[in-house]
Design a protein that fits this description.
This protein is of the alpha+beta class and 188 residues long. The chain folds into two domains: 54 residues, Orthogonal Bundle (434 Repressor (Amino-terminal Domain)), CATH 1.10.260.40; 126 residues, Umud Fragment, subunit A, CATH 2.10.109. It is built from five helices and ten strands; from the N terminus they run αααααββββββββββ. The chain has a seven-stranded mixed beta barrel. β1 and β2 form a beta hairpin. α2 crosses α3. The chain is elongated, with a radius of gyration of 19 Å. The chain starts with a helix and ends with a strand. It comes from Inquilinus ginsengisoli. Its EC number is 3.4.21.88. It is an enzyme of class 3 (hydrolase).
Length: 188
């Protein structure tokens, strides 16, 4: 927490106020004299605009779980949203324990993405409503098991979606298993 406070050039008072705790509580948390509970971690993440892992001093890397290439298809290494880590990459701002990354392979996603750029997203929440992401760039898993980076559009009827690409024909009236927004992109 000290690193986060100093990076913002905040005093103990400013950090405590941002977390809605007393100055002495903040100092004890910063020194490790008070246990960093889940509530304190959440408060600090909100106050500092950081990920919970960063507050705990764990952030720095997130799992690299696949690659994205031709046709903007994501090749997850174990085939699902909870892919096993095959490597790790620098964590983006606001990363948390659900943040994962895929790396762009090849030039088929040009001009939107270039080879070796990193696309970050959070693992899928099965209860998420895909319609809330209409018009957004997303990582989307289709009912047939394929996963893509696309722009989500409404399909011809409820429950169906169109996936737009920057350099390929749209995929019309597909059924999605899950969809999550692209959270951050690291340009190479």
């Amino acid at each position: 927490m000290k690193r986060l406070r100093l990076a913002r050039a905040w005093t103990h008072e400013q950090a405590a106020e941002a977390m809605a705790i007393s100055r002495s509580q903040f100092i004890k948390l910063e020194r490790g004299e008070r246990r960093l509970t889940a509530d304190y971690i959440r408060q600090a993440a909100e106050a500092f605009g950081a990920g919970e892992l960063e507050v705990m001093g764990v952030a720095g890397t997130v799992p690299l779980v696949g690659k994205v290439g031709a046709g903007a298809e994501v090749h997850l290494f174990d085939g699902d949203a909870s892919s096993e880590q095959i490597d790790e990459v620098d964590a983006p701002p606001g990363a948390d324990e659900t943040t994962v990354a895929v790396i762009v392979a090849g030039d088929s996603m040009f001009p939107r993405y270039l080879e070796r750029e990193t696309i970050y997203y959070r693992r899928a929440d099965a209860s998420a409503d895909p319609t809330s992401l209409i018009g957004r760039e997303v990582v989307v898993r289709l009912a047939d098991g394929r996963t893509f980076v696309k722009v989500l559009r409404r399909g011809s009827s409820p429950g169906y979606f169109t996936l737009d690409s920057y350099n390929a024909a749209p995929m019309e009236d597909v059924v999605v298993e899950w969809v999550v927004p692209v959270k951050w992109v690291k340009r190479d």
